[in-house]
Design brief:
It is elongated, with a radius of gyration of 27 Å. The chain is about 50% helix and about 10% strand. The chain is of the alpha/beta class. The strands form two sheets. Strands 1-10-7-4-2-3 form a six-stranded parallel β-sheet, sandwiched between helices. The protein has a four-stranded mixed β-sheet with strand order 8-5-6-9, with helices on both faces.
């Protein structure tokens, strides 16, 4: 994955700072509670929601088991429809492919549809290094870009900002990126949306190159699908002469009939809508309709390694609805930036360490960024057992060692030896009871753990000794 977030502190340190930001917590609490309540009502409308959820799980699992076959089929169909398919093993290769494609057009700017994959690989930064300006056109992504910020939510990247902050960003930054914000701009949603519309319209009409991701790719026909709510995606997908789509290899589904399941579950899980305001589909190129040139960049970037893990691979079912973020008590209090990844919240805690590995301080801490309450699993529309994967990844982190984990392993080994020697255990218990008044209130070296927990009080007498003195022999005449 991209180095965009590298150098950030581990989750515990980042979260500790975030929870003291009252404005951030207020913004997150209001937004996540509003979205989760609307989602619950939208899901309750479908009597067969459980069956749709299971169908989505089965479709994704089947596709992942046969991913090689469906990707080859997809490539053949896209090519036959007039598109060109490129394969990218990692972020660097994907960025190089896209940059070369843009430079081949002679253009120095592109418009972008909101895309997690391009954020994952740090495409905007890579294009900037090549002298190419990439303009985000999703309203929330525009806010993040103008504010020189980072996204903090999968669906609503600027969820950590309130209307007043957005108004100030537009007033101060819009002019340096293009059309300035209207004079006297207020913080009402209508005025903010109109300012963004006027600012972006110039870019839509001028751009010759568009860049997108895709929510799904249909192997049966080579069709790509984008779900969105604002219409900016439709503008980027139809107006430019060249369209480049960067898509993770796990986004493929076998048939149009499979897509029908996700057309019902994704909108309800993400925006609490019965269907998306804009569902754009395109298959290659067509004369007189849409871009004249289409390129599809299929991105691996750690996905094949994730697929090899029988427990962790279920994270690749994710359809990026963000329902898990909106119910997570940890995300609600810490915010998305604390996760050090473009994928925040519960899904980010299991996806990022698998795509990037668990060697960095950030990624080794993410599997622990959860209370394991299970709310994320209950709302996931493709039934990803996030708590199961979190525990699985914690085992991986522990197995790879590190100073803290070496101490833990040594302590467990010593405890195992003591438990194997009853005489030593009994002597230790008696010593602990006799010295109980001298025991500290916090364990040395474990202050963070004992700060919010009380150590159990040592009894005056070990249970083994009490049992020997107080156990009464049986008197029923039978052998004990």
């Amino acid at each position: 994955m991209s180095g965009t977030f590298m150098g950030m502190p581990s989750f515990p340190r980042a979260a500790k700072e975030a929870v003291h930001n009252k404005t951030l917590r207020g913004n997150l609490r209001h937004a996540t509670h509003t979205i989760r309540d609307k989602r619950a009502k939208a899901v309750a409308e479908l009597a067969d929601w459980a069956e749709l959820r299971e169908a989505g799980k089965q479709i994704k699992d089947h596709t992942l088991r046969h991913l090689d076959r469906y990707l080859v089929q997809l490539e053949a169909k896209v090519t036959a429809a007039g598109g060109t398919v490129h394969w990218a093993a990692d972020a660097d290769e994907a960025n190089r492919i896209v940059a070369d494609l843009v430079k081949a057009t002679g253009e120095s700017e592109v418009v972008k549809v909101k895309s997690m994959a391009t954020q994952e690989i740090g495409l905007n930064e890579a294009l900037e290094a090549e002298g190419i300006a990439a303009y985000e056109t999703d309203l929330a992504e525009l806010i993040v870009q103008l504010g020189d910020d980072r996204p903090s939510h999968i669906l609503v990247p600027a969820i950590h900002r309130n209307r007043g902050e957005i108004r100030d960003i537009f007033r101060e930054k819009m002019a340096s990126w293009g059309r300035a914000a209207p004079h006297g701009l207020s913080d009402t949603p209508a005025d903010l949306a109109e300012a963004a519309r006027l600012h972006l319209r110039e870019k839509f009409l001028r751009a010759k190159v568009g860049i997108s991701g895709a929510n799904f790719m249909v192997a049966e026909t080579g069709t790509l699908v984008v779900f969105e709510s604002e219409g900016n995606g439709r503008m980027c997908l139809t107006l430019p002469e060249t369209l480049i789509s960067v898509v993770g290899i796990e986004k493929v589904v076998p048939t149009w009939r499979d897509l029908e399941v996700f057309l019902q579950t994704l909108p309800r899980s993400s925006t609490a809508e019965r269907m998306n305001p804009y569902t754009s589909t395109w298959t290659g190129t067509a004369d007189g309709d849409g871009p004249r040139t289409f390129h599809l960049v299929l991105l691996d970037n750690g996905r094949t390694d994730t697929l090899a893990d029988e427990v962790g691979r279920q994270a690749l079912r994710c359809i990026r609805c963000s329902a898990c973020l909106n119910v997570c008590p940890v995300y609600e209090r810490a915010g998305g930036h604390a996760y050090g990844s473009v994928y925040p919240g519960p899904i980010g805690a299991i996806l990022s360490p698998q795509l990037r590995g668990t060697r960095s301080e950030i990624d080794a801490s993410l599997p622990y960024a959860s209370s394991l309450c299970g709310a994320c699993y209950e709302v996931c529309p493709v039934a990803i057992d996030i708590p199961e994967v979190l525990v699985h990844l914690r085992e991986r982190v522990a197995d790879q060692g590190g100073k803290g984990h070496r101490v833990e392993k040594a302590a467990m080994k010593a405890a195992g030896w003591v438990l194997d020697h009853p005489g030593v255990l009994g002597a230790g218990e008696r010593a602990a009871s006799r010295t109980r008044r001298l025991h500290p209130s916090k364990l040395p070296g474990a202050g963070a753990w004992t700060r919010s927990r009380e150590l159990p009080e040592i009894p005056a007498e070990p249970f083994r000794d009490w049992w020997k003195k107080n156990r009464k022999p049986k008197t029923d005449g039978k052998k004990p």
